[in-house]
Structure formats: C-alpha cells, structure tokens
Design goal:
By secondary structure, the chain is α+β, with helices and mostly antiparallel strands. The protein is 22% helix and 19% strand. It contains 13 helices and 16 strands. It is globular, with a radius of gyration of 22 Å.
Length: 338
C-alpha cells in the first residue's frame, strides 16, 4: 500500500524534535557539512562571499554579476537579463552550486559555481564545454522538475531531510533543507512519541554492507543502480561508497563508512586518525610502507582544479595512476557495489 505524501510526511519529526533528547549530537551535527548541503541562497553561511566575487565571463561575450536579491545579471552587448538565485547546493567545503525554479516544468542549474578555494566563480562541472546560442541558454542548464532519471527532485531529495513536497504550482518545497538526523536514522515521529530501540535506525549497529548501502543511497552517480560505472572516469571517485565496495577491506566484512567517519561531527582531516583505523588490522605493514597509510592506499584525485576527492577504493597504486589499484581485474562496467 502506497502512502500519501501527507501520511509519509507525518512520519517525520524534524531534527528539532530529536534535539530534545539528543542535544549534544544535534548541536554537533548541525555544524557539519551535511547540515549545510542545501540552503536558500541568502541564508547560506557563505552568502556574503557569493556577492563579493568579481563579475565572471562566459564565452563568447557574456558577463555575469552576482547581486544581492539574490540574483544574477547576465549582460552581452545590447542586452541584459536578470535571474533569481534561489537555492545553494553544497556546504562550501569545496564548492556551492546554484539552482532556481524557471517554471512548472523546469529548474535551472546556474552556469557558475562558487569555488571556495578560489573565492571566485567558475563553470559548474559538466557545463564548461556547452556552447550557448543566446543569452537565455547562457544562464545554465535546464533540468525537469520531476523525472526518475534526471529530475532536479532527485538532487533535492539527497540534499534535504524528510518528505519532499511538491506544491500546487509544481514547486519543490523541502521539509528540512540539509542532511539531518532522519536522513540516516529514518522517519522518527514514532520514536519521538515513544522512544524505543526498534523504532529508529541505528546506522552504527548496521553491518558494513548495510552502512555502505545507506550512505550510497545518495553518495552515488544519478541512477547508479541501473548504470554502468566507468572506473576510469575521475569524476566518479567522489562517490565514495561505490569505491569502498570494491576494496578488500570492505569485502572482508569489517570496514564500513562509520569505521572511519564519525556521523555527528565534522569530517576528520588528520591522516593520523585514519591511519589508526588501518592499524587495527594492519598492525605490521610491509617494510616498504610509509608511515601514512592513506597517502598511498587512498590517493587524492582532482578531476577538476581546485576540487579534490579521496579515492575510497583502498589498494596498492602506481605513482602515476590514482583511479584503480594495481591488479584490479574487472570488466568495464561490472561492480561489486551493494
């Protein structure tokens, strides 16, 4: 039996309800990158930075200015248009991409993304090679509001918490912007009314395969369950669960996402913390190994400067190849992903 949107939405309590009993976890998680995965652009923590950036160009002769409003003004000789900048996707640890509603059927992914390391605007990944034929096309890339494969609603679902609502005008209304408690613990209205161990998900108690499947529901390419994965395509490295699932450390049944990543706190950046996890199994590494496990066995990949992603396919790599480990025998497009 399919539940209505209202009935399904009623199963969610919202993170404020979780904070009543789990105040410390709520405070910690609210400061993480997950929590800022989506914000109304004007309310994003980096909003002040967005509107201090200098105007940015787009070939052949377009000029983009981010203005308070928030909005973008696009100019070309003899013509100028303005477009609202409604939603900011991404915490800004690396970048923030902007999305706005166009009409009942379409949303716009803006051409320019804000890159934190550059403190500047640059083309949104995937759009740099597109050649607009008019000022309207120069604004960015259109996505259908709802579509099982390519709809922008899929982006909103992974960047929000709770039931995603579509109003009478076919506009997307997130229940709670950002990734919060119930994105991982499941709908918790019943748990809030009567706390019990069996009416909420405890990711830390899940076996490694189920942890990876839970995180991989969003940390994956669009429609990944039905698509072949190109392991030679550097952009795919950012989908950590798919790559971890190829690792012997995972296939041995011991290493899951929460083996290394604390779910309620900011991402750990000290290599020593990850090396300590490796040492739990590899107490006597090979003599040729350096002190820093992750530098060699989980290399950093940069599909486009200044973006950098850690390759979670744990293995032994050649110095000139960071996408697949030495000896990885795999037919193109096959995978052991969960």
């Amino acid at each position: 039996m399919l539940l209505s949107a209202a009935a399904l939405g009623a199963q969610y309590a919202g993170s404020a309800a979780c904070a009543v009993c789990h105040r410390r976890q709520h405070q910690q998680q609210s400061a993480t990158a997950h929590a800022f995965a989506l914000r109304a652009t004007a309310r994003h923590p980096l909003a002040g930075e967005f509107f201090r950036v200098p105007p940015a160009p787009r070939l052949p002769a377009y000029r983009f200015e981010f203005l308070s409003g928030p909005k973008v003004r696009i100019s070309t000789p003899g013509q100028s248009v303005e477009s609202p900048i409604e939603w900011a996707f991404g915490s800004g640890v690396q970048a923030v991409t902007f999305v706005s509603r166009v009409d009942r059927n379409y949303y716009l992914e803006h051409f320019h993304t804000y890159y934190t390391a550059l403190k500047a605007l640059s083309p949104t990944p995937g759009q740099e090679s597109l050649k607009p034929i008019n000022i309207a096309e120069s604004a960015g890339l259109l996505y259908k509001t709802r579509d099982p494969a390519t709809g922008i609603d899929g982006c909103f679902r992974c960047h929000t918490t709770g039931e995603l609502r579509i109003d009478a005008e076919n506009a997307i209304q997130p229940a709670e912007p950002g990734v919060h408690c119930e994105a991982c613990h499941g709908p918790a209205a019943a748990h809030a009314r009567k706390p019990a161990r069996n009416n909420v998900i405890h990711p830390g108690r899940l076996p490694a395969a189920k942890q990876v499947a839970l995180c991989g529901a969003c940390h994956r390419p669009p429609n990944a369950q039905n698509a072949k994965i190109d392991w030679n395509y550097a952009w795919n490295v950012r989908h950590a669960p798919l790559y971890l699932a190829e690792s012997a450390c995972f296939r041995g049944g011991k290493l899951g996402c929460l083996s290394c990543h604390a779910p309620h706190t900011a991402l750990e950046k000290r290599a020593a913390a990850y090396n300590a996890v490796c040492a739990q199994c590899h107490s006597k590494p090979a003599a040729s190994c350096a002190a820093n496990c992750v530098d060699c066995h989980m290399p950093t990949v940069s599909p486009q400067p200044p973006l950098r992603f850690t390759n979670h396919w744990i293995g032994v790599y050649n110095s000139g190849s960071k996408l697949k480990p030495i000896g990885a025998i795999m037919k193109e497009g096959t995978s052991r992903r969960p």
